[in-house]
Every structure is written in structure tokens, then in C-alpha cells.
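Lab channel / #folding
Pinned by the channel admin:
"Please post every new chain as: sequence first, then the C-alpha cells as a reply. Keep commentary short and put observations after the output so the thread stays searchable."

First post following the new format, from NK:
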Amino acid sequence: MEQTWTEITDVDALVEVIGVPIPRVRDKVRRELTDLDRDWLAASPFCMLATAGADGACDASPKGDPAGELVHVIDATTIALAERPGNRRADGYRNILENPHVGLSFLIPGRGDTLRVNGRARLVADAPFFEEMVVKGHRPVLAIVVEVEEVFYHCAKAFLRSRLWEPESWDPDGIVPRRAVIAQRYERPQDTIEELDAYYGEQYRQGLY
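Reply from TO:
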């Protein structure tokens, strides 16, 4: 049986469905970091970095470091995040070279609200502030410097709906197989599960920095 979709194709139709924000939500966007924002960034060990290339190809990359080490605040309108060892795909970085506009969501474990930062990014291979971004003796080889254009707090409803921070709702070994099984199926079919379990164990942790 053919199904009919009702698609939203313009702003007026969107507003008709979801309505308009109340004034305090509409007007909460700020252009500079406050002391409270700096405290949040200092407490956050994790964020998501969203980018898009010139062709519209998108990427959302997780970034993580110990709380207090994730973000270096240069001034009220400038922050930096260090590049740490990864898979070298650099999808988000390639996007930034084509299109500097980025969005970041900073999380604090256990908190439902998030700090949102939007701005323009550039890649920096070296700068004096790199000395302040050393973690476990490792100096970054690259940093993302973001000129803040918008900053605001986002409400907790998505986290409450998902029960993200409620351990009793977690089932990490349920339907989805462990990382070693996924890696063998899609990335490393020549390796055994035993080899991959070993790789994604303590050996993997030793390569974080």
C-alpha cells in the first residue's frame, strides 16, 4: 500500500507545526563567554563538534579529554580544542578548511543541560598556548581555534527522554555486539576476534595520547 508523507518544505509550515519560541528562549543567545560559561567548559570532559564541507557533506565528531583539559579559553570570544591521536580521517578538519562554520555541544556527565557554542573555526599547527594544552606529557600537534559567535544553554529534555545518565537503563552488551565484533565485520576481517579483543583492551587505552 502506498503511503503519503507530509513533508515540511518552508519556514511557515515548520512554524505551523512546532510553534515559535517564547521570548526568553528566543533571546538567550550571547556573543561572549561569561564566567559561568568558563566554569562549564572547565568542568566538561566531552563535546561534539559539528562541521559541514563546501559540498554540504556533514560530520559530527566526538572530542574528549579530562575535565579542565578539553577546552583552552583564550579570551571571552575565543576557545581552542586540541587534536589528540585518532584515526587520521580528519573529516571535520577537512570540512573546516572548506567551510569554517562549526557548532559544538559541551556535556558534563550527569547533567541534562548542555552548553552550545557556534562560531568560525581555523586549524592552528602551533601557538604559545599549546604549552597549556599538554595532557599526560603530550603536546598537541594541532588545535581547532573557534571564534565564538553564539553561546547559550540548551535544556535537558533530550537527556531526560533518553535516560542517558540513568545506569539502570543501560544495556551496553545487549543487542549490539562489542567493538571487536564490529571491527572484524566492517574494518579488519583478516584479524581474529581474540586479536581484536586484545587490541581494544588495555593496548587501546595506552594509545590515547
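NK: The longest helix spans residues 193-206.
TO: also worth noting, Residues 12 and 19 are 10 Å apart (CA to CA).
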